[in-house]
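To the wet lab folks,

You asked to see what we're planning to order before we commit. Fair enough. Below is the target structure as tokens, and below that is the sequence we designed to fit it. If anything looks off to you, flag it before the synthesis order goes out.
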């Protein structure tokens, strides 16, 4: 609370924020509000404390930015790692991460969480099915992460190899009941499927 009120985003408001209850009196902050203060106007810590930043996709306009201090990254990896632990990620896990890396926070923050648990991250990004076949042959991952549609395509194309090494599938990104249900219903899936 003491940190948040230092942000330009909250300064000049008609109320004084001196307790969490006061936040209830505020209207929701929109992306429009955040964009009005780009790039650093809604920071509540000095820029010199920021060690990493990520943006939204920008599909509805200018991307909004998330800033992370060392403490933020430390906290987020510990919290996010709890989910990965539930998925079965351990120090011997080899996780093929088939999601786009870049400015979006999902891949890096989840990578840090997996590494925190001692898992090996194979940051594959995106590519052709042949590219993933080569990675699977070479590294023998036992966990794979991707969008429902990607996992579905990968599963049908690389069926024999997937069954031999991959024990856990984590579906991330866009939510799709249709693709997820279809994945779980096919006999070639002999491993757990989780939604992130």
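Sequence we intend to order:
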């Amino acid at each position: 609370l003491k940190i948040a009120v230092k942000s330009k985003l909250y300064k000049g408001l008609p109320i004084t924020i001196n307790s969490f209850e006061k936040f209830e009196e505020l209207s929701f902050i929109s992306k429009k509000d955040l964009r009005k203060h780009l790039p650093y106007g809604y920071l509540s810590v000095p820029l010199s404390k920021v060690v990493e930043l990520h943006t939204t996709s920008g599909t509805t306009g200018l991307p909004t930015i998330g800033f992370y201090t060392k403490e933020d990254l430390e906290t987020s990896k510990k919290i996010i790692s709890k989910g990965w632990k539930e998925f079965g990620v351990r120090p011997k896990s080899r996780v093929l991460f088939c999601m786009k890396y870049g400015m979006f926070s999902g891949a890096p923050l989840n990578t840090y969480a997996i590494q925190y648990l001692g898992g090996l991250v194979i940051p594959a990004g995106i590519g052709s099915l042949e590219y993933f076949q080569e990675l699977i042959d070479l590294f023998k991952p036992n966990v794979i992460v991707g969008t429902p549609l990607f996992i579905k395509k990968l599963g049908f194309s690389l069926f024999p190899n997937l069954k031999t090494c991959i024990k856990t599938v984590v579906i991330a990104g866009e939510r799709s009941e249709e693709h997820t249900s279809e994945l779980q219903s096919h006999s070639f899936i002999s491993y757990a499927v989780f939604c992130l």
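Structural context that might help your review: Residues 70-86 form the longest helix (17 residues). Confidence is low (pLDDT under 50) at residues 186-193.

Thanks,
Computational group
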